Structures are given as C-alpha cells and as structure tokens.
Write the structure tokens for this entry.
Amino acid sequence: MTKPHDGSKTSHRPSPDPTLRARAEEKLRTIEAVESEKLSIEKTRVVLHELRVHQIELEMQNEELRKTQTALEIGRARYFDLYDLAPVGYCTLSAKGIILTANLTAATMLGTTRSALAKSLFSSFIHRDDEDIYYLHLKRLLENNQRQVCELRLLRKDAEPFWALLESIVSRDEDDTPVCRMVISDLTERKLAENKLRESERQLRALAAKLLLAHEEERKKIAVELHDSIGSSLSAIKVGIENARIRDESRSELLDAPLAMTQLAIDEVRNIMAELRPLVLDDFGVITALNWFFRQYRTTYPGVHVEVETCIEEQDIPEALRIVIFRIAQEAFNNIAKYSRAEYVDFRLVRQDGTINLTIEDNGDGFDLDAVLSKIGERQGLGLTSMKERAELSGGSFTIRSVPGTGTTLSVKWPF
C-alpha cells in the first residue's frame, strides 16, 4: 500500500490548514482500519483515491501559502523603501510629544538610531530658541485637529543645528488614542539658497544706492558748474548792459531787449540749477530748502493751499537722508500739481517714537493704486517707483494709500 509523504518532504512548507489535516488523518485512520479488516481491492482503491485528492489539496494550499509569503516579503521591501528610506523623516508622537515610531531617515537627520529615538521626547531635539514654536505647533494640532506647519531648528548629535519644516496631522492608533503623525523635511539647502538670494539683493540694493548717490553728486556738480560759469557770465552780461544803458541813455531802448533776454536766460539757468540740485540744500539744510521749495510752489500754483509742519531739528536728520527727503517731497508735489487737482496739501516732517516720519496728504482726485502700479513699466507710475526706491534704499519704509475721489496719503518712515 502506498503511504503518504513523510515529514521529511513537507517540513519546509508552511503548516497546512488544521481542518484539512484533521480530514487527512481521519482518512489515514480509515485506511488503517480497512487494512485491518482486509477490505476488498475495490474499496482500497477508493480510499487511496480520496487520500491522494486530499494530498493534492494540501500541496495546492501550500503553494498558495508560498505565494502569500512572497507577496508579504515584497510588501515589506516596498514598505522599507517607501517608509524607512524616504527622503523625509517620519515620526509618530504621543499626545505628550513622546516618539513612538520613526523611520531611518528621521534617525539619520537627528544623528542617532531608531532605538535611541524610541520613547524619547521630541522636544529634546528642538533648538532652545525655537521651543515655543514647537510647543504652539503641537498645542494647535491637538486642539484644532487640523494640519499644522512650522519651521524651526533641530539639534543633531555632534553637528550644527539645521532648519527643518514640520508638517503634522492628528491620527488614531490601534487603541483609538490620538497621536501625531509628523513629516520632517530638511531645509538646509533652501535656507542656503535664501541666504544667497538675500545677499545678492543686499548687494544690488547697495549698488543701486551708490548709483543714486553718484547721480546726485553728478547733478550737484552740474548745478555748481552752471552757477559758477554760465550763471556768473550771464550776471556779468546783465550788469554790463545795465551800465551801458546808464552811460548812453539815447541807446537805452536798444538795450532793453538784450537785457530782458539776459534776465530770462538767468532765470532759466536758476530753474535748471534748482531742478538739478538746489544749492540752498547744501548751504542751509533740508528744512530751509523745503521752505524755499514751498514758497516757489505757492507762487507757481496759487490755487493750492500748502500746510507745512516740521517738528524736527536739522541736526537730527542724517546728511545722506536730506536729499532723499527733498527729492521725495519734490516728486510728490509735482505729481499733485500734474494729476490730482488738489486744493489742499498737508506736509509733515516730524521725529516721533524713534523714527523720522514724512507724510504728504492731499484732497485731490486720488487714483486706483493697482492700476497705476501695473503701468509702471509703461512709465505711467506717477514717480511712485522713484519715491519708493529712494525711501527703501535709504533704509525707510514707503506706503501710499489712495482711493479715487478721496485723495492720496504718502508716508515714509526712517529709523532714527
């Protein structure tokens, strides 16, 4: 009689289904009983057939188990790749901030091992100056049950702290206890790029400030040259013509036209000099220069009432800031004359709360700020770009508020 396969041939296979094994053992007992009763050959063949069927069933089940085991091994490998070898760190924290699980990337980021992370407080890896950020991050997460994001510095064993982005959500573990699922992203490369960008911007701003200063110096040189050469020459010509009129009264009428033309030329040179660089600014300071400018402005635009308030001493204004204040005021008042149709302008230059504050407010037509800013590239920015650049390059903050029909308010603040 053919016997079932012995244990030596099946020991490498997974354990079969207990039910099938019980049925097989029952069949074996039946065969043994049949043998003991000396069954007929036909009955023996039936019993053997049943036994072989069950043997094939066991082999098929073992094959399915092997496939399942292979699938599990593949799943574990994928899990290892996706979780442990992910480019970001994964951590699960308890509600008290204790690390329950962490992947290999998180352990590597923190310069330790997974076993060392287990049961540790995540706060022990937070930079001391950023502990409040982490505390509020965890507190808001557990209170709101909404995704929370923050940037802070993490400590790494035997290395410099590094900037990281924490992204956390609330989940539930097997016991339905709330836990924190956290993703940790290393921001070192991004921070380095940001620092380089800020340094480039700083250098560009410094270069722009130098260019602006060089531009002003060049304007100053031209204005002085006009004053000392052309202005002086024109003044001498005028004096000569006037003396000639006095010496020869019969030719006085013939000299009237040249005298008038000379005076127009002198006035034109003075206007050009004032536009380039008012010498009163360098000789007497910005407050005197502003008062001179407002007198000229009232003469040119008699329909505009200008109210002036200067609650600051000349010596309290840094020398490099004086030309900036004058140019911003000059540009703003020119814009008011060209575009706003204002009847009232309030100018204030005051020292207050550690800052130098410049405010220019008018009751004119106002404008749509977004629409004007969108046209700056078309040179229709009403000088806003020029004023903003001058303010910011000199260390100030520039703001402007305007609504059509309600006027415009321009404000610049410099730290004192």
Q: What stands out?
A: Residues 163 and 191 are 8 Å apart (CA to CA).
